[in-house]
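Sample entry as discussed:
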Amino acid sequence: MTAINHIGMFVRDIETSRQFFINYFGAKSGEMYHNPKKMFSSYMLILDGGAKLEIMTRPNLCEDENKTNRYGFAHISISVGSAENVDTITRRLLNDGYRHFDGPRTTGDGFYESAILDGEGNIIEITV
């Protein structure tokens, strides 16, 4: 079974954005995740009904819509049920000519994931 796991969005001010979703949409916030090596921080927000939004920030973000490190929506994460499926689907995509972005790997906050770029350069995360 596949399902959208979460939507990721880069923001300038992560704390203000977090409060926006908490105050206006009743989001429940997880603890901040911070990866000092990648200079990356994020919160996973859960909305009523279970939809998840990951708000993220890093110091080198830009306005250029042709860059993967731009502000705004950053990626869609699709859950495929197992680490084996992550690996299998990643290999299939790469064999079909799609570009590798990251992984497969276990992230610092415990997700097993891979990321590829679709035909238009959008980041598609594939996760358990």
